[in-house]
């Protein structure tokens, strides 16, 4: 789409915009932000069963209207901030288009994501590329896009001094942001805590030197950045977030004299309630803590959530193909596996699961182990999970699958990746077809 700049927030005929939302205060249903959370139980069973019939199994379903609601609710809680969507959560073109239409920027973790965001029509002044140990091909691609004018206003965020040198060698003297290592992490799993991991960002006491090096190479230092990890849920996480933001604020104030900072980016990691009993994130509390901790800085706040915008907008539909009674448990074999949705296998993550077929038809409840078809013991979605008694052919929905679902899918065991259907304005369409066996083998020479 190319008309997005004309139709950004407020021109979509609904009369809603960030400005109208200001002062509405509460997240709730204000300003089209929808409910704070969409639970798996809230999805309409008939719609999901129709989608399964139309697009096969396993299939991801993503509701773009819900993505927009999540954006609007977040933007209302951070009225002065720019919201950049962390593309790695779900890099489907339709997601970029919907969020671009809402006015979001995009935070890219690779040159590939930069290309996909630009292809979807996101203007380059809202595209940030965060170079984490960037492979040469990534820098080549990004600098070429910048040189050609395709991405003239893109911002590159560096987390190592030698990335500055590698950019300079390629002739880059555009917009640059310095990622600092805040020395404090947060997250639902140690594997996603980046804040205190030496891999990410430059040590705080080196940040100014890196900026100086970049300035001498002719680059325009416009921002500082930090990201603590993924998953601010509870008070402890919020404390870590506060500490992280305060440290970034200090760095920004140090920069102030020498550099004309446009923004201070405090990263993503806004949590979502994966368990049905988890309370939704208190966005206003996070926003207040962020503002307080940042202190006085003469630059725009940037937040870059991934999961928060897309997680509850997605479900994974999968057929039950085996029901096996064992002395310990009922084993439910489904046709999705760790190759379709990797989070449970990698992080031990909890995802809600619902038997969509068995809605209100009086079936009993079983406690089941839900497993996929992959020859790995880690190929398990849930253990001891209460579910409406399953019958072969039932359709299960796995919730909160909109973030880090398809993006982490693989072809292990020669499993073609699933289809993706999107819902928008109440109608469904196929956004990405299912892979075929020949898609996989076609690369062989
Ligand atoms: C992954 C990542 C994010 C988004 O994390 P979420 O938990 O999905 O919000 C934001 N910024 C950076 C630099 C990231 O690597």
TrEMBL record:
Gene Ontology molecular function: diaminopimelate decarboxylase activity; pyridoxal phosphate binding
Cofactor: pyridoxal 5'-phosphate
UniProt catalytic activity: meso-2,6-diaminopimelate + H(+) = L-lysine + CO2
Biased composition (Basic and acidic residues): 1-11
InterPro entries in the record: Ala_racemase/Decarboxylase_C, DAP_deCOOHase_LysA, De-COase2_CS, De-COase2_N, Orn/DAP/Arg_de-COase, PLP-binding_barrel
The protein's enzyme class: lyase
Residue segments, region Disordered: 1-35
Domain Orn/DAP/Arg decarboxylase 2 N-terminal: 65-311
Binding site for pyridoxal 5'-phosphate: 269, 304-307, 404
Annotated binding of substrate, by residue: 307, 343, 347, 376, 404
Catalytic residues, chain numbering: 375 (proton donor)
Assigned keywords, A-Z: Amino-acid biosynthesis, Decarboxylase, Lyase, Lysine biosynthesis, Pyridoxal phosphate
EC number per UniProt: 4.1.1.20
Family annotation (Pfam families): Orn_Arg_deC_N
Cited CDD domains: PLPDE_III_DapDC
Pathway assignment: Amino-acid biosynthesis; L-lysine biosynthesis via DAP pathway; L-lysine from DL-2,6-diaminopimelate: step 1/1
Family annotation (PROSITE patterns): ODR_DC_2_2
PTM-bearing positions, type N6-(pyridoxal phosphate)lysine: 88
GO biological process: lysine biosynthetic process via diaminopimelate
Assembly mode: Homodimer.
Family statement: Belongs to the Orn/Lys/Arg decarboxylase class-II family. LysA subfamily.
Function: Specifically catalyzes the decarboxylation of meso-diaminopimelate (meso-DAP) to L-lysine.
Protein's recorded name: Diaminopimelate decarboxylase
């Amino acid at each position: 789409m190319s008309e997005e700049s004309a139709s950004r927030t407020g021109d979509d005929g609904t009369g809603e915009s960030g400005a109208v939302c200001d002062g509405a205060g509460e997240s709730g249903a204000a300003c089209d932000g929808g409910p704070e959370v969409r639970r798996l139980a809230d999805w309409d069973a008939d719609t999901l069963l129709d989608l399964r019939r139309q697009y096969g199994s396993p299939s991801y379903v993503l509701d773009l209207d819900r993505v927009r609601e999540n954006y609007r609710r977040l933007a209302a809680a951070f009225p002065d901030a720019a919201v950049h969507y962390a593309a790695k959560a779900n890099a489907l073109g339709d997601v970029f288009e919907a969020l671009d239409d809402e006015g979001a920027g995009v935070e890219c973790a690779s040159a590939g994501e930069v290309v996909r965001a630009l292809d979807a029509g996101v203007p380059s002044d809202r595209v940030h590329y965060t170079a984490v140990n960037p492979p040469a091909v990534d820098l080549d691609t990004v600098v070429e896009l910048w040189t050609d004018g395709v991405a003239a206003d893109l911002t590159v965020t560096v987390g190592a001094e030698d990335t500055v040198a590698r950019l300079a060698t390629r002739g880059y003297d555009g917009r640059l942001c310095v990622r600092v290592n805040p020395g404090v992490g947060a997250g639902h799993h140690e594997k996603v805590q980046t804040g205190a991991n030496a891999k990410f960002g430059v040590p705080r006491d080196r940040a100014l030197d890196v900026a100086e090096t970049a300035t001498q190479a002719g680059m325009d230092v416009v921002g500082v950045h930090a990201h603590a990890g993924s998953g601010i849920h509870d008070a402890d996480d919020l404390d870590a977030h506060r500490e992280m933001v305060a440290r970034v604020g200090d760095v920004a104030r140090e920069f102030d004299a020498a550099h004309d900072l446009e923004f201070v980016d405090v990263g993503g990691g806004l949590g979502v309630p994966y368990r049905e009993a988890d309370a939704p994130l208190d966005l206003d509390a996070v926003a207040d803590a962020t503002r307080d901790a940042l202190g006085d800085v003469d630059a725009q706040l940037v937040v870059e959530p991934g999961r928060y915008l897309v997680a509850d907008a997605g479900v994974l539909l999968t057929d039950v193909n085996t029901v096996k009674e064992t002395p310990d448990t009922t084993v439910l074999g489904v046709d999705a596996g760790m190759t379709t949705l990797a989070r449970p296998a990698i992080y031990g993550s909890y995802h809600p699961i619902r038997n969509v077929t068995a809605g209100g038809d009086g079936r009993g409840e079983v406690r089941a182990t839900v497993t996929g078809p992959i020859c790995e013991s880690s190929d398990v979605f849930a253990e001891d999970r209460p579910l409406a008694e399953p019958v072969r052919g039932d359709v299960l929905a796995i919730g909160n699958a909109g973030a880090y679902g398809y993006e982490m899918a693989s072809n292990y065991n020669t499993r073609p990746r699933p289809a993706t259907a999107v819902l928008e304005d109440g109608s469904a369409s196929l956004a990405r077809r299912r892979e075929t066996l020949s898609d996989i083998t076609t690369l062989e020479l």
